[in-house]
Structures are given as structure tokens and as C-alpha cells.
């Protein structure tokens, strides 16, 4: 992509309305535009990151055996009356009436709809276990939308729903999602800690929130610092095998949100030097709620004995749009964003430090063509901006690799390869730069 033809509305001024660094940087870097309180348009740079995150979430869901579908954003109120949540959900639910005076709502979550789909087709334990997920926009009319994508009203969520014959099988499904979450967040360069959590309006009595520690986070947490160094399962993890050892390892070290914090246990189990009481960003939450929805909505399957029984369910959410902000909170410096490679909007940027000079133009064009041909997502800054401005833009938008092409280096046959993560620079030939980015 040539920057001169891209749409990257960078802001010179720091927007006053943004209270936290991720929100400020997303606005300044031209990723996002607020259209109403808690409702945003995703501009091209922001959308690229959102899609990368979505794809990692999708790959790890698929790997764990979940199956993708897509449910609509609008749902019938009557469906929610079946579970009793239409009234219970309160003012956070956006209620809509269509031209036939039919009551609808913009879905804040999908337990009811997926249960309705399930009960329409599945009648036997032989079709279980089943885990269906989608990645879809949700709406919650939050009292205080704030911090940009962190607490939006419209936001993108991955939500998965598992169906099992009994509690033991449902716990296995829960464990698969637990492990998938460990892997998902690690692939994005995040340390997200599973913490015991309250279940709130989703219900049930078993739940973990996955939390990225950050001072700007909205959740208060207590944990043993040892939990920060536990190993994340590799891509050879066997989802059909026994995952209990992994779960045990992760859940036997103290980690809880303040809502379910057990002060006595914390005192007893955690040595003073390992006690952490801090804040964090909830990037995902998983729930086991048993027969809460299947009882009320009559989602029954016949067991091996031929007797119908309500299925045991769980639901598993990831805050896909919130993750964009969470990653920036974890990866930035005073100059801007430092995207982990896995979620970066472009892998590399070419900075032509003397636009219009025959030698730098030719070298940049050649690099741009070669990298593009080799499948590297590259942004070529071919604008008239001065070198200082190009450095600032590339640092602000956080591209992991920058190739600086100036007349002095070129005279020696080199360009400078800069790594955004640590600022390290190296003089290499253009061919070496290409080799580094393609191997
Ligand atoms: N049905 C369940 C699991 S699928 C559910 O809705 N869980 S949830 O309420 O915990 O939401 C899942 C994730 O969505 C949260 O962990 C959080 O990362 C994200 N999320 C929730 N509310 C918002 C919001 N207002 N803005 C941005 N992300 C949000």
C-alpha cells in the first residue's frame, strides 16, 4: 500500500476527550472515529488490526473444535422472554420496534438464540459435544461508555456456546476453551491471566475472566505473581486428550477478581513478596452455567437410556474490539504504538527519506515491488512529508519493521532496518532487508 493513496487521517493534536493512552493513540493514528458515545467507525488502519485479531481468535477456536456460524445482530424479544432475561437485562438492552410493531432487540449476547437453534435440530446425545461460535457485533447500552473501544456500546465479540450431555462432559468443553484462550491471547503478544470471577447476568457458578494486567484496567484483581510465569500450551496441545493437568496448573495458583476475592485464602496461600493487588483489562470470560437456559427453553436431548434431559451449557466470550485497545495499553511508548507482529496492520514500512530524488525513489519502488510480490504486507511512505515527519508517523502507527531509505546510505549500497519494538537499527543492503522480512 502506498501511503499517498491510503486513508490515514493522523491527528496532530492529542484529542482531549481521550483519557487513556490506547484511546488517544487510536484516535491520533487514524484508526478510529467516534460516531456517537461508545459507537465507532473503524478506519482502514484500525480495521486491519481488528481483522488480524479476529483471525487469531478464529484459528484457535477452530483448533479447539468449535465451529463457526453467524447469527444476526437483531433478535426477537419473545425469545428472551422464554429465558426470563428480557425483563431481567434492564436498561443495558437496546430495544427496537419494527414496522409491524414486533419487538426486537440488538443482541448483547446470544445464549437464547443459540439455544433456539440447537433445540430445533439436535435431539440425541450422539450429536454431542457441540460448540458453535460466531464473531458478531453486540450492543450494550452501557451507563458510562468510556476509554474508546475498551467500554463501547457497540463492540465486536467472539462468543462460543457449548452443549453437553452432563456436567462432566461440559467441564471438558470448558477446559478446551480455557486452553484455547491461553493460546489465543499469547499469540497476540499478551499475558492474559485466567482469574476466578463472578458470573453476573450470564449466570452459573463457574467462571474465569482472562485479564491483562494494566493500571488503566477496570477490574480490580488479586493474584500470586507466580501465575505470570506459567507456560502457555503449544500448538501441539491435544484437545481430544486430557487437559486437566494444564487446568490444574493454572487454577491452583491464586488469581481472582475483586468480586470473588477470598482475603483469608489469599493471606494463607500467597507469600508476602508474591502478593499482587492490581488492576487489569478483561479481554475474555468463560462460563459454565449448567441447565440454566436449556431448562427454561426446553433444549433436551435423549441420553443413551432414551430419556430426554436438558443439556449442560457454557458460553465463552472474547472482546475482539476491546483487544485492540488492550494490546496498545500493553505495547506502546512515548512515540506511539508498538504492534506485536501477529496483529500489526502492516509488517513493514518503507520510508523514502528524500522523496523526488531519483536514487531513493528508484530504490524504494524496487523494495516495494519485491516485498509486495513476496507477500509482505508493506506500507510505502511515498508522501512529500519531511524525513522527521515520516519517522514520527511510522513510530506512531507502530509498524514493527521500518526500512529507512536515504541518499547517504544508498551511496554505500545500504538502507537502514529499524525494529520498532526496541528501536534497534542496522545498515543492510536492500536485498538483505528483503531477506530478513521474508524468511
Ligand atoms: N455470553 C457471554 C460469553 S459468550 C458474555 O457475554 N460474556 S461477557 O459479558 O463477559 O462478554 C465477553 C467479553 O466481551 C468480555 O470479556 C469483554 O472482553 C467484552 N466486552 C463486554 N462488554 C464490553 C463493552 N462494553 N465494550 C467492549 N468489550 C466488551
UniProtKB/TrEMBL annotation:
Question: Record's family?
Answer: Belongs to the class-II aminoacyl-tRNA synthetase family. ProS type 2 subfamily.
Q: Name one GO molecular function term.
A: proline-tRNA ligase activity
Keywords for this entry?
Answer: Aminoacyl-tRNA synthetase, ATP-binding, Cytoplasm, Ligase, Nucleotide-binding, Protein biosynthesis
Q: What is this protein called?
A: Proline--tRNA ligase
**Keyword Electron transport found:** no
UniProt main location, coarse: cytoplasm
Domain Aminoacyl-transfer RNA synthetases class-II family profile residues, every copy: 38-340
User: What does the protein in this record do?
Assistant: Catalyzes the attachment of proline to tRNA(Pro) in a two-step reaction: proline is first activated by ATP to form Pro-AMP and then transferred to the acceptor end of tRNA(Pro).
Please list the reactions this protein catalyses.
tRNA(Pro) + L-proline + ATP = L-prolyl-tRNA(Pro) + AMP + diphosphate
Entry's EC annotation: 6.1.1.15
How it assembles, according to the record, is: Homodimer.
Offer a single GO CC term for the protein.
cytosol
Amino acid at each position: 500500500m502506498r501511503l499517498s493513496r491510503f486513508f490515514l487521517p493522523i491527528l496532530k493534536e492529542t484529542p482531549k476527550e481521550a483519557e487513556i493512552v490506547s484511546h488517544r493513540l487510536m484516535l491520533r493514528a487514524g484508526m478510529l472515529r467516534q460516531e456517537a458515545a461508545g459507537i465507532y467507525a473503524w478506519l482502514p488502519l484500525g480495521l486491519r488490526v481488528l481483522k488480524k485479531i479476529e483471525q487469531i481468535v478464529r484459528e484457535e477456536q477452530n483448533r479447539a473444535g468449535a465451529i463457526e456460524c453467524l447469527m444476526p445482530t437483531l433478535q426477537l424479544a419473545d425469545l428472551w422472554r422464554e429465558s426470563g432475561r428480557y425483563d431481567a437485562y434492564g436498561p443495558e438492552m437496546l430495544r427496537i420496534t419494527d414496522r409491524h410493531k414486533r419487538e426486537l432487540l440488538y443482541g448483547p449476547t446470544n445464549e437464547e438464540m443459540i439455544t433456539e437453534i440447537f433445540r430445533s435440530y439436535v435431539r440425541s446425545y450422539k450429536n454431542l459435544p457441540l460448540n458453535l461460535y460466531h464473531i458478531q457485533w453486540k450492543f450494550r447500552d452501557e451507563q458510562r461508555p468510556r476509554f474508546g473501544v475498551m467500554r463501547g456500546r457497540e463492540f465486536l465479540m467472539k462468543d462460543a456456546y457449548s452443549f453437553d450431555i452432563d456436567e462432566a462432559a461440559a467441564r471438558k468443553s470448558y477446559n478446551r476453551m480455557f486452553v484455547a484462550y491461553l493460546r489465543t491471547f499469547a499469540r497476540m503478544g499478551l499475558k492474559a491471566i485466567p482469574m476466578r470471577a463472578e458470573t453476573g447476568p450470564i449466570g452459573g457458578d463457574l467462571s474465569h475472566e482472562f485479564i491483562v494486567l494494566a493500571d488503566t484496567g477496570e477490574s480490580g484483581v488479586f493474584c500470586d505473581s507466580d501465575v505470570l510465569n506459567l507456560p502457555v500450551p503449544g500448538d501441539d496441545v491435544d484437545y481430544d486428550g486430557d487437559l486437566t493437568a494444564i487446568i490444574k496448573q493454572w487454577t491452583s495458583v491464586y488469581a481472582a477478581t475483586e468480586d470473588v476475592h477470598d482475603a483469608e485464602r489469599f493471606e494463607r496461600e500467597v507469600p508476602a513478596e508474591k502478593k499482587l493487588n492490581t488492576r487489569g483489562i478483561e479481554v475474555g470470560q468463560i462460563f459454565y452455567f449448567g441447565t440454566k437456559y436449556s431448562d427454561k427453553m426446553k433444549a433436551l436431548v435423549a441420553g443413551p437410556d432414551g430419556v430426554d434431559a436438558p443439556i449442560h451449557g457454557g458460553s465463552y466470550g472474547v472482546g475482539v474490539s476491546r483487544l485492540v485497545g488492550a494490546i496498545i495499553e500493553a505495547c506502546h511508548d512515548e512515540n506511539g504504538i508498538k504492534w506485536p507482529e501477529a496483529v500489526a496492520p502492516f509488517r513493514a514500512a518503507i520510508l523514502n527519506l528524500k522523496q523526488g530524488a531519483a536514487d531513493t525513489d528508484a530504490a524504494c519502488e524496487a523494495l516495494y515491488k519485491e516485498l509486495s510480490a513476496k507477500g509482505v504486507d508493506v506500507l510505502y511512505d511515498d508522501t512529500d512529508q519531511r524525513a522527521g515527519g515520516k519517522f514520527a508517523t511510522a513510530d506512531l502507527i507502530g509498524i514493527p519493521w521500518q526500512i529507512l531509505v536515504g541518499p547517504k546510505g544508498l551511496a554505500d549500497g545500504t538502507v537502514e532496518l529499524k525494529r520498532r519494538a526496541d528501536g534497534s537499527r542496522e545498515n543492510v543492503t536492500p536485498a538483505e532487508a528483503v531477506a530478513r522480512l521474508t524468511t
